[in-house]
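hey so u asked for the seq, here:
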Amino acid sequence: MSGLRSWAARRLLLGGVQTAAVVLLVFALTEALPGDAAVALAGDQPDPARIAAIREAMDLDRPAYERLGDWAAGLPHADLGTSLVSGRPVTSYLSGAFAPTLLLASLTVVLLVPVGVGLGVLAARFAGRFVDRLVSAVTLGVYAVPEFAFGVLLVTVFALRLDWLPPTAVGYGTDLLAHPAALVLPVLVLLSRPVCSLSRLVRAGMIDALASPYVAHARRYGIPGARVRYAHALPNAVAPAAQQLARTVDWLLCGVIVVEALFVIPGLGTVLMNAVAERDVPVVQGLAVVFGVITVVLNLGADLVAHRFAPRAEVTA
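ran it, structure tokens below
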């Protein structure tokens, strides 16, 4: 127990360091963005006096380290700053666009776990046979197709040719749950690559576990095959799969930007793209920090799950 507490304390400390590094990196990268927000806000024919007034009103004339200190001091209080374009708090952008993004990510994860694990277990059970080769070939082929191209293909077939599903979410607002047909194609695009990688990882872990001495020992005792697969072999394949699942959720934060742009979904990805186009630095910084902190938390959780199922395995960050 003391070893587990010591390991958890080290991981929490590392997570804190990673969070601080995310804050510094996000600020440095947004500072390096080309252009000037004051010039962009001043209009098509900016007056130097107006640009100077805007820079002073928005504290853009202050040194970068002072603005970093003020911004970082507000983060623990959920103060992400104020938009340069609209004057609204950055948190209002999060609250307004979080629901569609969370809905897409949640539906993807809920479907990803049973489908990915199920395909991996199925392929491992028939390792080297036709079912295994079929699952491996299909997952490898789907994984090789970029999300944007796969989304365009689905829209062309199921929306434009067959007219079964809407091509975009235009007209549905942020309440996408009331219009489930608009969610089918975006969720399929988000599922395509994670299902392939998770199923292949589970397959490899299951094959290794089923070939291990303890599984052979369990079979000698006459334990049924289903119990051997699901009670003995599967938990040992879950440890690396949990870390892959955390990386997948992390990837969803990036993949959802592409999907929201393709299907015109008013989520965080769309807000981030608009903020970059308008050079609304506080909004970009706020969203980037939120994405970064979520990534750190997910990896901490994945390491805890991996340590729980495989306590002898060396868990890395």
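Residues 225-263 form the longest helix (39 residues). Confidence is low (pLDDT under 50) at residues 311-317.
lmk if thats what u needed
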